[in-house]
């Protein structure tokens, strides 16, 4: 009987595995096609806000508008893109698209001091010609370098710290700035933090989640803010969903926020409508 059960379990597992493999195969094929078309892979935008709730910039977050499956989130295809070595192409598509939009919005609305943050993967940063690509994109889209911020994660840096620092310095010479994303979740070493040419830390959502759940959660966020202050780094807290979290962060001296409390990531058309409806005092 137990043998039979085991066999059944095994066959259920096989079906699931097989479906996953077919799914991945289909998605890989579709992704290669999508990267050759312009409109399927596109950034959505989530605002970063100041203590008054005013927008001060955006983070570009990739979405794939799949012809059959609808809008897919990065969680549904980024691993596949990484595995198939498609991340550099995907990342570049997002960078170009996001810079174009930001540049157009800057021409139309008084948002000259706003920043556009774009996530960068390890495989992108590691490309020798990445700084040259970024420079070319900025020139072609007519976006000033000081408007562009690149978000990298600790895991990106951990793989090759010296190489990363060299690449980052090349990009900084263009005028681009850096934010350390998901801070506190990777294999962070505090000695990296001193060496890395970054301007900003992003407190990971997991710390915002526990901020008001345990005293330790609160202490950790406070410690991150103190650390940032003594290293002269700005701080953004990500994943804020509740008013009480915001109040606690304001009290701790955090000055920049991102989260569903303010806005979910939105399609470019929605962002443009918001900008058009906004009275922006810059
Ligand atoms: P991330 O860079 O840490 O981005 C934050 C993620 O948290 C986004 O998910 C965003 O939609 C979500 N988020 C923001 N506020 C809240 C909130 O209040 N509550 C909850 N539950 N979630 C919130 P998304 O768009 O699914 O992106 C996931 C990850 O995929 C990103 O994490 C980033 O690591 C990666 N990613 C997205 N776009 C790109 C890209 O263009 N290039 C690269 N290399 N990675 C990207
Ligand atoms: Mg990010
Ligand atoms: Mg993040
Ligand atoms: Mg995150």
Molecular structure report:
The chain has 282 residues and is an alpha/beta fold. The protein has 12 helices and 9 strands. It has helices at 2-36, 78-83, 87-108, 122-125, 130-141, 154-158, 161-174, 190-195, 205-210, 215-230, 243-251, 268-277, and strands at residues 41-49, 55-66, 70-72, 115-119, 148-153, 177-183, 200-203, 234-237, 256-257. Strands 1, 2, 3, 4, 5, 6, 7, 8 and 9 form a 9-stranded mixed beta sheet that branches. The longest helix is centred in the N-terminal third of the chain and has 35 residues, at 2-36. Mean pLDDT is 91; it is low at 1-7. Residues 59, 119, 151, 181 line the site of one magnesium ion.
Topology, pairings included?
Layout: H1 2-36, E1 41-49, E2 55-66, E3 70-72, H2 78-83, H3 87-108, E4 115-119, H4 122-125, H5 130-141, E5 148-153, H6 154-158, H7 161-174, E6 177-183, H8 190-195, E7 200-203, H9 205-210, H10 215-230, E8 234-237, H11 243-251, E9 256-257, H12 268-277
This protein binds ligand C2E and magnesium ion (MG) (3 copies).
One magnesium ion (MG) is lined by residues 182, 204-205.
């Amino acid at each position: 009987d137990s043998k039979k059960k085991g066999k059944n379990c095994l066959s259920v597992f096989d079906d699931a595995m097989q479906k996953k493999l077919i799914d991945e195969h289909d998605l890989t094929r579709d992704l290669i096609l999508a990267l050759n078309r312009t409109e399927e892979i596109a950034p959505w935008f989530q605002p970063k806000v100041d203590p008054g709730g005013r927008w001060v910039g955006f983070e570009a977050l990739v979405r794939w508008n799949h012809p059959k499956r609808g809008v897919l989130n990065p969680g549904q295809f980024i691993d596949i893109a990484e595995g198939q070595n498609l991340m550099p192409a995907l990342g570049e598509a997002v960078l170009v698209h996001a810079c174009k939009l930001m540049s157009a919005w800057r021409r139309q609305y008084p948002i000259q001091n706003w920043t556009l943050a774009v996530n960068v993967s390890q495989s992108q940063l590691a490309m020798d010609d990445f700084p040259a690509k970024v420079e070319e994109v900025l020139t072609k889209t007519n976006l000033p370098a000081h408007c562009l911020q690149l978000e990298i994660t600790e895991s990106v840096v951990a793989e090759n710290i010296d190489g990363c620092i060299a690449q980052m310095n090349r990009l900084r010479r263009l005028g681009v700035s850096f934010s350390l994303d998901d801070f506190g979740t990777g294999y962070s070493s505090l000695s990296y933090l001193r060496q890395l040419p970054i301007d900003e830390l992003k407190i990971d959502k997991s710390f915002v989640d526990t901020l008001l759940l345990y005293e330790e959660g609160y202490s950790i966020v406070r410690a991150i803010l103190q650390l940032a202050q003594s290293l002269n780094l700005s701080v953004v807290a990500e994943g804020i969903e509740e008013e009480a979290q915001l109040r606690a962060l304001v009290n701790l001296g955090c000055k920049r926020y991102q989260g569903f409390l303010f806005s979910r990531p939105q399609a470019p058309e929605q962002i443009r409508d918001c900008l058009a409806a906004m009275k922006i005092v810059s």
